[in-house]
Amino acid sequence: MRVLIATDAWHPQVNGVVRTLTSLAAAARALGVDIEFLTPDGFPSLPLPTYPGLRIALPGRREIARRIEAAAPEALHIATEGPIGWAARAYCRRNKLAFTTSYTTRFPEYVAVRTGIPVGIGYALLRHFHDAAAMTMVATPSLRQELAERGFKKLGFWTRGVDTTLFQPDDPARLDLPRPIFMAMGRVAVEKNLEAFLSLDLPGTKVVVGDGPQKAQLMRKYPDAVFLGEKKGADLAAHLAAADVFVFPSLTDTFGVVQLEALACGTPVAAFPVTGPKDVIADHPIGAIDNDLRAACLRALTMSRQTCRNFALARSWENSARQFIGNLTSLQPSRSLRPSPVMAQRPVRG
């Protein structure tokens, strides 16, 4: 089976969407499914003012068509609602092709935090985008319920997984810091709500792993916290394993793959009771969720690290890939995409 995924989020970005798609492709390959990506690579782009260091692609209609037809996929999935996603959606609509989407980022909340635009406007736009899909895949039951209440239709499940070979507890980084270590990891940006963590009165040390536009401001405001910058791969896993508690203060993530990555490293999670943590942690003894984040952090210290690891071992990317592929095969496209002779001879970038 050939699958093409259109995404605005791609390397060198470091975020949950990119990690999810990369892990999905690797797991699907082992199941005999070939996933290619239609990414911003090769398109002109502009800097994104609200995200310094990131750029937004400006895809041309003709080139989008060429790349899709050259890939000749049997199923097309749109992972993001940016310019690449909208262009791929428009192509499918013009050619009466069925496609699926996934809801992975709370753009209405992100935009509201940065611009003050009401979330209702953002959700109306996203509802229009996803209503054209044969299925919109969501990661958790609570997100499905929330979107259904906002008028989204044709919702299906696609859970997330974790690489338990990479993320493991056996080789933690050596951090010469007062214990316990409470660690947050991810993009250092206002929508991640890191101040809710950094402002807490906690024993030991508060550590932030990651980079982003709010880093310099937070370093000045919270000089007692330790900012270690961006970590990747085995280095990231080693730092997660070195923490006593992983703190996930976000109120806007739809899942938070990093929660599973921390648990795979044997590190319990502390979070607010919102979509994502409510579904991952729930009432399992692998962390604590509480409107009082400090209380959650202290309660998480009492959790068994082995129980956290065992929980993650049952949530593989292979299971996630099987669910994603099952969603695609359950649909009947209007017609299969086939390349023209000219298109088939040209390489697909990205």
Commentary on this structure:
The chain is α/β, with parallel strands linked by helices. The chain has 2 domains: 2-161 and 317-344, Rossmann fold (3-Layer(aba) Sandwich); 181-313, Glycogen Phosphorylase B (Rossmann fold), CATH 3.40.50.2000. Helices cover 39% and strands 15% of the residues. Strands 2-1-5-6-7-8 form a 6-stranded parallel beta sheet, sandwiched between helices. Strands 11-10-9-12-13-14 form a 6-stranded parallel beta sheet, with helices on both faces. Helix 10 links the parallel strand 12 (245-248) and strand 13 (269-271). It starts with a strand and ends in a 6-residue tail after the last helix.
Distance between the termini: 19 Å
Total number of distinct structural domains: 2
Specify Rg, calculated over alpha carbons: 20 Å
Shape: globular
Kindly report the name of the CATH homologous superfamily of the largest domain.
Answer: Glycogen Phosphorylase B
Mean pLDDT: 91
Total E-strand runs: 14
User: Main sheet?
Assistant: 6 strands, parallel
Give me the number of helical elements.
15
How much of the sequence is in beta strands?
A: 15-25%
Widest beta sheet: strand line-up: 2-1-5-6-7-8
Q: In the CATH hierarchy, what is the class of the largest domain?
A: Alpha Beta
- Provide the succession of SSEs: EHEEEHEHEHHEHEEHEHEHEHEHEHHHH
Helix content: 25-40%
SSE class:
alpha/beta
CATH architectural grouping of the largest domain: 3-Layer(aba) Sandwich
Contiguous low-pLDDT stretches (5 residues minimum) are: 339-350
Can you tell me the CATH topology of the largest domain?
A: Rossmann fold
